[in-house]
Amino acid sequence: MVVSSLLMLTGICIMASVAHALAALRRPYDPTQGLFAGMCLAVVAYGISQVVCFTSYDEAAYLLGLKVNIFSVCIFFAFYGPFIQRYTGRGSIRLLQVVSAIYAVLAIINLSKDHSLQFDSVIELYQFELPWAESVTLAAGSISLSMKVAVLLTFCVLLYGVYALTRLWWQTRSGAVIAMLCAALLFLAATVQGAMVRLGLMDFIHLAPFVFLLMPLIMGTALNRESFQRLQASERRFRSLVEQSPFSIQVLTPDGKTRQVNSAWEQLWGLTKEDMASHQLLEDPQLIEKGAMPYLLKGFGGVATEIPPLVYNPAEDPYLEGPSRDRWVAAYIYPIKDGSGDISDVILMHQDVTDKKRTDDAMQLVATAVSSSTVDEFFDKLVVNIAQVFDASDAFIAVTDDRLENTLRTLAWSASGRLVGERLIPLEASACKEVLQIGQSKYFHEVRQDYPQDSLLSDLGTTDFIATPLRDARGKVIGLIALSDTRPLMHVEENTRILEIFAARAESELQRQQAEAHIRHMAYHDYLTGLPNRGQLQEWLSEANDTTAAVEPQNALLLIDLDHFKTINDALGHEVGDGLLQSVARRLQDIAGADARVARLGGDEFVVMLTVEGSAQLAAVKLAEGILEGLSQLLYVGERTFSVGASIGVALFPIAGSGEADILRHADLALYEAKKSGRGTINLFRPALQAAVANRLQLEEGLRNALGNGELQLRFQPQLGRSVGVIGAEVLLRWRHPELGYVSPVDFIPVAEETGGIHAIGTWVLTESCRHLSEWARQAVPFTGHLSINVSAWQFSRPDFVSQVFAALADYQVPPQRLMLELTESALLYDLQETIEKLRALRNHGVGIALDDFGTGYSSLAYLRDLPLDQLKIDKSFIAELSGEMEHPLVESIIDIGRNMGLVVVAEGVETGYHCQRLIELGCESFQGYLFARPLTEEDFRDWLEEEHSVVSFEQMLPMRRQDPTPTTRS
């Protein structure tokens, strides 16, 4: 009975080991099932070896069975500890690995010992009779120490198992765990009983084999039940995951039939599982057409695959009868394999990426619109792209217009994929007006119910309407971008966001256009008056200067320069001056009217361009006269009133061979002549003016090189005193041009002053004069008087002029009294206080000061009294008028003024003996002119001094000039 029971339980253990081994080998591999299968296999060996021991009658057979028996026990417990740890999750893996290694060592020791691990020696075999009259073979002998250690270790392992299972049960209260715990307790009790028998403490057979053989039934059943429960829980979680997943999930059979779908799938496609009962996915014509089949075949072939987004059109597939609009769907295929590696199910996950696709398309289409070549093309592309992205019937961009009240004007409109022309949108009682008022995006569903009077929505047959406002750079609402459709719009929130992307791009373009318009306005208009500027004038001239258009000029350019504007600006300030320029600009626009165009060149210069069909000259003169008359009338600047004059130069064009720059130059030349004529005049350009300009240009270019080329020369004209003879000489400048010959100072000095060359020339004259004085003193030339140097107003105004004079005197060691500086009234009166300070510094140093051309300027005794002077020079124009017995009060007054103020009065331009005699009679004592000597070169001047001055007195010179020379204009 014992043997048969053991064999039956051993057979059960064989079946259990095979079953759990197969369960462990399913994918993924289950180590818990694998460990339990090893335990069952060890129990099989234990049961068979125990039968051998119970039925053996000789010692060798018994010991062989005993060795296998103890070996299988060691192997069992080597698996038992790791199994409990895997099952309960408690215990140290490293410690249990050490315990398992010890059991392996004990198993090897057991096989190597003659009497197994249990005995040091076998004393005898005997038959033990069981209560039910069955006898079995047992052995008696000396128990080994190794056996005792193995028994102790086994108790520890069993106690660990009880502890771990108890803790797990306490946590889970699971029936499978309590079954496992009961088996472990039974196992512990049976092991205690078996240990007592093996140690000779109890005379009975081992009960452990029966418990060992029952263990797979108890633990295996509990383990299988728990695995089944886990599988059920896993399936429930899987089903819950599928059902609650936001992704559309479709479970398919290996042949493409639908096995299961979740609610997200039904919501996406608008279908149910029953609707797909006869649908074969692998034969879907739309999937084949759109290129999805290669991906599907790959997935059904066992490889997880991603299907890129594809567009699905319900109208193209009879099975897809969900939402009416197209949708973009991405998919993922996951094949599910069974234990044998065959595909049992195919999971097809769908994700609606329509919103993302629309966003991406919106970005791409916005970028496409950016590349448009023109402004109109940009907005046209933008509205077409908007309608395309949203699959909407109408899309438009509209902005406010200052010329239109309560109305929007469209910049671009797409209707059913076609661009339509500009349209005006009334805002009264409209959805557009609400969007503009709230200043944010808004979606209107069944919009015509809310706005039945909106004519735009009625015309379009609108069902749904979305609009978002457009703003300028300062945040002001300037328009809107809108989407209208005859069908309900899907994904409203996402669509609104995408529309705002388009709106942001449209705002950017509008702001860019406004910035460009502002920049262009700034580039082509004057910031102060708002009139077109020189750049705009150039474009006008370029358009009008068509030399092939007419036989004679039909255009006129009037260049206007305000008279004495600088005086007003300096006296009253730039604010008043700017206001005056603005008033003049408005007055010119009023006078010119619509027939002419007005621009400002800069400063106080304006231009008017006129185009006529008749005589351009007559029209230009008439307009110029009207401008002079209009500007002479009062102009208002705040509380001030002004009446300004002007000079106008007129150039007619086109003229063959003349470009835009030539036209402006001609007008400028004409204006220059008008100002020379006394201001307040009109002058028409003549070719002769061009010749004068060419001559002036030649003088300017020549003056730049005159000093370096040694072309400038000095002349010396003696000055004589009636009682003392030669008192000095005036230094005069001459220029010998390589092509023009001698050029009069009257011609080149003004050019030098205007070009700034007078500074270098004046410095050279000063330096050369000091050098001559120094050389003459060293060479004992009989000249003890002074040299008079003419000083330009520009030269005198330099801050370093005084220091330059001092430096020149010091460099050549010339006594300051030998130098006389001649200045005109215009040079002295620019800044009277500064002039006085400079003159005093020069006088204090010893330099003489002469006032040249006295009486021709703004002569005033008041400033004459304040100025530190040494000489007054009577201008030659007054000397030339001395004739007969007529009175000459002005010359006499000048002489009296000089005498009364203690100044030396020098009459220049004395050319006849009569002039000299009359001046003497009037009281003049000093003279200069052709009567005594013409301007002389240095060599001639020195000869003149040697020949005449050293031997002839002033009185003796007069009879020598009995034959008075014909008066000659001095150069």
Automatic annotation (TrEMBL):
Domain PAS: 234-284
Location of the GGDEF domain: 553-687
SMART domains named among the record's database cross-references: EAL, GAF, GGDEF
Top-rank taxon, per record: Bacteria
Signal peptide region: 1-21
Ranges where the EAL domain occurs: 696-949
Entry-linked Pfam families: EAL, GAF, GGDEF, PAS_4
Transmembrane segments: 31-48, 60-80, 92-111, 149-170, 176-197, 204-223
UniProt keyword annotations, A-Z: Membrane, Signal, Transmembrane, Transmembrane helix
Residue stretches making up the PAC domain: 313-365
Record has Signal as a keyword: yes
Keyword Transmembrane helix: yes
NCBIfam families: GGDEF (TIGR00254), sensory_box (TIGR00229)
PANTHER family with a match to the protein in the record: BIOFILM ARCHITECTURE MAINTENANCE PROTEIN MBAA (PTHR44757:SF2), DIGUANYLATE CYCLASE DGCP (PTHR44757)
Name of the protein in its database record: PAS domain S-box-containing protein/diguanylate cyclase (GGDEF)-like protein
Organism the protein comes from: Allohahella marinimesophila
